[in-house]
Specification:
- With about 210 residues, the chain is of the alpha+beta class.
- The protein has a domain of about 50 residues.
- About 50% of the residues lie in helices and about 20% in strands.
- It is built from 7 helices and 5 strands, in the order ααβααβαββααβ.
- The strands form 2 sheets. A 3-stranded antiparallel sheet has the order 3-4-5.
- Strand 3 and strand 4 form a beta hairpin.
- The termini are far apart.
């Protein structure tokens, strides 16, 4: 009986150690899968914010400094776009590059340009996302950090800038804490923002996302 008991204990110990080894291998894999999914959602939201900010600036000359202003613009604003009226003959495309062909067709009176106003909501959102939730980091009740400012170039020209961001701790909240700490340490070691962001309040002409 004693030998049987020892044997059973050894089997249990081996099983437990095997599970612990398996779990230690799978844990980073599970974390990456969940983290990648949340990153994808968060990046899409930041892209939507960027599109809205670019449209806002095109109409107002500066970026929105708050989500209240930005979402109101999406819901109620108008965007002016230039539309070509008329058809460019194939002979123009055969003779000129595409952009030049349109200019030549305008000069010839074949095509006209007209400026029209379209709904911001239809152009920017079109029901693809809930405008009221644009300010929230996906899967959380926390808002993105949003800011807008102006920077002065060496030529004394003032350039509008904006930034929207969220740290790892927010958009990955609830996932393995040590993995998040590791990601944060790596980003800081490399001199990068420890999270996801688009735009910059310190660099003009930089509306890129740090995932790009």
């Amino acid at each position: 009986m004693k030998k049987i008991a020892v044997h059973v204990v050894m089997v249990v110990v081996i099983a437990v150690l095997g599970y612990m080894l398996y779990d230690s291998i799978m844990q980073p894999i599970r974390f990456k899968k969940k983290a990648d999914w949340r990153k994808e959602l968060t990046v899409q939201s930041l892209k939507n914010i960027r599109d809205a900010q670019v449209a806002f600036k095109s109409q107002n000359g500066h970026y929105a400094g708050s989500f209240d202003t930005l979402t109101d613009f999406i819901k109620n604003g108008k965007i002016k776009i230039v539309k070509a009226i008329g058809n460019i003959p194939d002979s123009f495309y055969n003779k000129y590059p595409r952009k030049v062909a349109e200019l030549k067709a305008i000069e010839a009176g074949i095509v006209k340009r007209d400026t029209i106003e379209v709904s911001c909501y239809d152009s920017l959102c079109g029901g693809k996302y809930d405008v009221a939730k644009l300010k929230f980091v996906p899967t959380t009740n926390t808002e993105f950090e949003l800011g807008a400012d102006t920077l002065e170039t060496t030529s004394k020209i003032k350039v509008p800038v904006f930034e929207a961001k969220t740290p790892f701790e927010v958009y990955l909240n609830g996932l393995d804490r040590q993995e998040i700490v590791n990601m944060k340490d790596e980003a800081q070691t490399l001199g990068r923002y420890p999270g996801l962001k688009v735009g910059s309040l310190t660099e003009y002409n930089n509306n890129a996302g740090n995932w790009e």
